[in-house]
Amino acid sequence: MSAFLATEVNVAQNVGFYIIAALMVYGALRVVSTRNVVHAALWLVVVLGGVAAQYILAAAEFVAVSQVMVYIGAVMVLFLFGIMLTRATIGAESDLNNRGWGIGIPVAALLLAVMVWAIIDEFGSSIIDEPAQPMPTTALSDVFLREGLVPFLALSFVLLAAAIGAIVLARKD
Amino acid sequence: MIVQLAVEVPYWGQSLLRVLGGLVAVLLPAGTIVYLFLFKMMSFMQSRLGPMEAGPFGSMQLFAEVGKWLQKEDIVPENADARIYKIAPIIVLVSTFLLVVVIPFGPDAWFTNFSAGVFYALAIGSVSVIGILVAGWSSANKYSLLGGLRAAGQLIAYELPMVLAVVGVVIQAGSMNLQDIVMAQNTGEIFGWSGIGFPFVLTQFVGFLIFMIAVQAELTQAPFDMPIAESELVSGYMTEYSGFRFLMFFIGEFATAGVFALIASVLFLGGWGIPFSWFGWETIDQVDNWMNIVGPLIMFTKMMVLTGIIMWVRFSYPRFREDQLQRFAWKVLIPLSLANIAVTAIVKVVV
Q1: Cβ neighbourhood burial of A1 (10 Å; 0-12, 13-18, 19+)
Q2: Domain of residue A154, residue span
Q3: Is B149's CB within 8 Å of A84's CB?
Q4: CB-based contact B261:B303 (threshold 8 Å)
Q5: Which of B11, B98, B137, B179 to mutate to test the interface with A (most CBs of A within 10 A)?
Q6: What is the pTM of this model?
Q7: ipTM of the complex
Q8: Yes or no, beta carbons of A65 and B133 under 8 Å apart
Q9: Angle, to 10 degrees, between the axis of helix B334-350 and the axis of helix B205-218?
Q10: Integer distance in angstroms from the first to the last C-alpha of chain A?
Q11: For residue B245, what are the domain limits?
């Protein structure tokens, strides 16, 4: 609780955080409630853009730019591309929900609880320095090419395996 | 940007100046490119005069065109998804304005000095694809949808060589900050001779070529104009747009050409700088204040040369077929840029 009662927090930054957070929550609700697949994808763009904005507020500009590059520039474009190649009807559709949608709610709630617990447990009382100094890109790369080298390589390997797997599954000849 | 002026400018004044500077940095190149290259150079290459009536040599033609587009009715097709149809051109134009924010025009003439500047420029450059895709979809027109899909397929394919071509420059400069990249080129020496600094186009010529080809494809200029192909798709994703919203796409296209040329000149041609040894400067703090005026002019000159090349290629070559276009990106440009990165990294470690 100490994080919420701290006196030395930056008020402007917190106001910004809650405005963006409200927009993101509204966008996330629209993703699951809208009646058109393309609209859902576009609301998802709003949510992911909000995540990038939150990273900027937390002085993590490299992560913010990566967020825009990977999620908005690549993942969402592929999403939209795939939707438009298969079913791109304009207007409301009625058969968007599948039967198991109710299970999503407890899973999402559980995920939220775990993440809130993990983040408050780890960073609950830490406050960003004033004025916020973004981590230089070189310092960041030093961290994940020294201490974080093994997980970094492991992640790269998983991604490579997934890419090869996708090619193997998609190629018929 | 304003720190060096004698008068103290308040925060709101600085913000206002930045917005005005951004408008100038986007609209001035766009207007110049359209008049000089699209109206005049293309006409001369085709043995005609181009616009001659409005103003001396038709130089006021641009204002007449803008006036014409602003008067036209803003039509939304009956079956279109009206709200998204209206937002799409705004996404494209805003991504252009966001792109210009990281480009340095002088020692203090920058909008923001972002430590991951190159990365930011490449990331924002890929946002406009969403605008193009939804423009094609929301028009409720099968030609528009086809154009949007072709555009997305092409932009995804050419995004990658562009990013990989820039990595070579980043390795050589040892920084992702555009200001540091300009510094590295203008303080550099070629075997001890510092007469022209060390523009990266000399060592990264392959990267420069790949970057310019990828820019040509990102801008959907011929020979990469499959997505707008007037003769088969009647302008692709822009078919249904008219009036003000068509104007936004049009400005976005040529402004983005200018902005990408600015980025290329920063990455490969030394940016706003002149070789620092000419005036005995060693660090960025020693650079004289007049460079804040001369720097933007140098940038503008380099941008005009590069956009001239882009437009020249556009007017000269016929259109690629879809399979040729994809094969060229995935089988030629990407392996070549990966090899370029490997060689650059090895040389960087050895030297």
Answers
A1: exposed
A2: 136-173
A3: yes
A4: yes
A5: B137
A6: 0.86
A7: 0.80
A8: no
A9: 150
A10: 59
A11: 11-34+78-350
